[in-house]
Amino acid sequence: MNSVQEPDTADGFEGYKFRIVLLGEATVGKTSLLRRYTENVFDEEYKQTIGTTFATKDVDTTDSENNVRKVRLSIWDMGGQSTYRELRRQYMKGASAAIIVYDVTKPETFMAMNNWFESFREVSPEAPVVIAANKIDLIADRMVPQEPGLMLRDWFQAEYYETSAKDGTAVTDIFTKCAEIVLLKALSESKSPIM
Length: 195
Fold this sequence. Notes:
single chain, alpha/beta, 34% helix, disordered N terminus
């Protein structure tokens, strides 16, 4: 299992390191969510992600005993185009978790969620998934109501957030929750007896 790295001080960071992948169709706002979270910026102009990009962010996360643990998230933003399918597969393998994003103004991106979920499960069957229903600031253009997203949450057994990279709604929450989930999972696995 490659999901947790014990605290490693080689690069000066004393804490846990996890790789999170952002998945979803092209134009759903994966890069915008990443940039809002790591740089607190939003770019109005769409720029296609070529292959993958990544950013890291250190967060303090509380474990089940209320101890604060240092966590470094390496967040990989995967281009949504089908030409990157094999490349994505390589980056998904061994990821600690996935945040799968859809655009509430584009029902086809919601309809593709199961494909993203299944392709992630193929290579990382035990890793948690978080769902981001993005672009909720576009109230007049919204075509996917909350209910289908909640059904998806139950189906995937995942956390669900309604986000806006533009105005920042729930962006920090989704990554903070992701850090908490992967930390608690890693700590519980390290305490379980080795077979």
